[in-house]
């Protein structure tokens, strides 16, 4: 369990932060941007949960916990040294990705196929889930960029890719199973 006795440490005042393995890096590094954007995604999920109930709220709660797992995964480089670590580093697993896929498949069965792109909006929950989707896509882009520079857990990239799809389908569920989706009308304002 994590114990936080002191909130500020002054160790980041020069623009560096510590990773999970103790290494110090610039706060603007791709790795820090990657897990920082995962944290931002988590905050948007918290906002969405203000409007969520039932199964969607329960699933969002699980996603919030997963996002902390993902942040812990991304802040710990050197996967090849995991076996030598003092304690087993937390890594996203394929089972977490598969859970998202199962939930996406269930939501897909509940909505009609799309015949147009959807504009972000509709119900308050759907609008917030679209924001979650776009922020999680940014986290994915940064994590993919990081994976081109350093070793990244492949399940972490898969999780982020499925997560944005989860948010998309959940937004449709939040819009009366897609009946209240706001459809894009190409060239409508010409």
Concise overview:
With 190 residues, the protein is mainly alpha-helical. It has helices at 30-49, 54-74, 94-110, 124-147, 154-174; strands spanning 16-18, 24-26, 118-119, 182-183.
CATH homologous superfamily annotation = Cobalamin adenosyltransferase-like
Helical run tally: 5
Instruction: Indicate the CATH architecture.
Output: Up-down Bundle
Tell me, rounded to a whole number, the average pLDDT.
Answer: 91
Structural domain count: 1
- Tell me the total number of β-strands: 4
Separation of termini? 58 Å
Reported for the largest beta sheet, the result is: 2 strands, antiparallel
General shape: elongated
Strand order in the sheet with the most strands: 1-2
Order of helices and strands: EEHHHEHHE
Radius of gyration: 18 Å
What ranges have pLDDT less than 50 throughout 5 or more consecutive residues?
none
Which range does the strand content fall in? 5-15%
CATH top-level class: Mainly Alpha
Helix share bin: 40-55%
Write the layout of secondary structure elements.
Elements: E1 16-18, E2 24-26, H1 30-49, H2 54-74, H3 94-110, E3 118-119, H4 124-147, H5 154-174, E4 182-183
Antiparallel strand pairs: 1-2, 3-4
Helix pairs in contact: 1-2, 1-4, 3-5, 4-5
């Amino acid at each position: 369990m994590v114990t936080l006795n002191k909130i500020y440490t002054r160790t980041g005042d020069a623009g560096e932060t510590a990773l999970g393995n103790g290494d110090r890096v610039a706060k603007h590094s791709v790795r820090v941007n990657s897990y920082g954007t995962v944290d931002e995604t988590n905050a948007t999920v918290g906002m969405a949960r203000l409007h969520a109930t039932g199964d969607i709220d329960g699933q969002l709660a699980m996603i919030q916990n997963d996002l902390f797992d993902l942040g812990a995964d991304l802040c710990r480089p050197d996967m090849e040294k995991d076996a030598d670590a003092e304690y087993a580093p937390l890594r996203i697993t394929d089972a977490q990705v598969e859970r998202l896929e199962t939930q996406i498949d269930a939501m897909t069965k509940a909505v009609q196929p799309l015949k147009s792109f959807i504009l972000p909006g509709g119900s308050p929950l759907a609008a917030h889930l679209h924001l979650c989707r776009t922020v999680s896509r940014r986290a994915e882009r940064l994590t993919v960029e990081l994976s081109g520079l350093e070793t990244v857990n492949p399940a972490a990239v898969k999780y982020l890719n499925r997560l944005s799809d989860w948010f998309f389908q959940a937004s449709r569920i939040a819009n009366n199973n897609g009946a209240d989706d706001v459809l894009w009308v190409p060239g409508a304002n010409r």
